[in-house]
Amino acid sequence: MKSIVFSVVFLGVIALFGFTKIDSSVQVKSAPTVAITSEIPENIQTIIDKSCVMCHNTESQNVKGKTKLNFDKFKDGYSVPKQISKYMDIADEVKETKMPPSKFIEKHPEKKLSEEERNALVAWAENMAKQLGGE
Amino acid sequence: MKWLKRIFYILIVALIGIQIIPIAEPTFSSDLSNDFLAQNEMPSEIRIILKNACYDCHSLQPELPWYANVAPVSWLVKGDISEGLSELNFSEWESMSKIKRIQKIESCSEVVESKEMPLPIYATMHSKAKLTDEQRTKFIEWAENFSETIFEK
User: Fold this and answer.
1) Facing residue for B148 by CB, picked from A81, A129, A132
2) How many domains does chain A have?
3) Do B147 and A68 touch (CB under 8 A)?
4) pLDDT, tens digit, for every residue of B21-50?
5) What is the SS3 assignment for B114?
6) CB A91 within 8 A of CB A126
7) How far is B113 from B26, CA to CA, in rounded Å?
8) Among A101, B24, B53, B76, which residue's beta carbon has the most beta carbons within 10 A?
9) N- to C-terminal Cα distance for chain B?
10) What is the DSSP string of A25-83?
11) Domain of A84?
């Protein structure tokens, strides 16, 4: 009896791990590309799709990441002041190289931002905040 | 028993010794000309929350207990205050740009909602800083409104 229970639990654990793995790989592949507004410049969109959206979208499994910033919410969800604060946060985090996180870049070296991309993203985010804030 | 006594003496000497290690102290100031609480209207319950749960680390007018000046506690306390001030300093609120103020008040609402703030270790040591769920809800509601007000000005 004991050995039966043991093997059932053992198989269950294996199945659980197996499914989790499959699930997460599917999630990564299907990370959607999203547009914040229609006027978002192409070069910025490319940067966001490459290095940010994987965690910062509604479907993301990174709960902390998507709670702090969800690009899907710029269209509807974030109030204008909230959008301003999010653009400011993006500018700060990217400028201080807190984002993308170094652990994430270790896993996905191809998503690393070049100095040029970093500057472009910061300038764009700061500009969006100023525009929305009427400054 | 002899060695226990010896360890005790060593600890006492070490505790006195570490008091002379210099630490980077934030410069406190009593200037209220740019202070958030001094320059803005808000309900008294919100004022109390800010003063009791935020101002010790996010302003230049902290109310520190005596042991906050004693190493090694002071290392942790002054470290947290410096970090807190670099993130948000309510004493220089009025000197910040409009969009910066919006960013900061929105962040306040978010970190109170996620319970990242007040820092759990701080709230454990200071019962005045423990926020009830009701206080959190009221604070978030107020912060969102305040943010709109700054935006519309």
Assistant:
1) A81
2) 2
3) no
4) 888 778 888 899 999 999 999 999 999 999
5) coil
6) yes
7) 28
8) B53
9) 71
10) HHHHHTPPP--SSTT--HHHHHHHHHHTTTTSSTT-S-HHHHHH--GGGGTTTS-HHHH
11) 33-133
Complex ipTM over 0.85: no
Q: Which of B97, B114, B150 sits opposite A135 (nearest CB)?
A: B97
Which tokens is B20 given? Answer: 């002379």
pLDDT in tens, A67-118: 999 999 988 889 999 999 999 999 999 999 999 999 999 999 999 999 999 9
Same-domain check for residues A67 and A13: no
- Same-domain pairing of A45 and A107: yes
* 8 Å CB contact between B50 and B105: no
Same domain for A117 and A58:
yes
A129 and A78 within one domain: yes
In this structure, the number of other CB atoms found within 10 A of the CB of residue B149 comes to 13
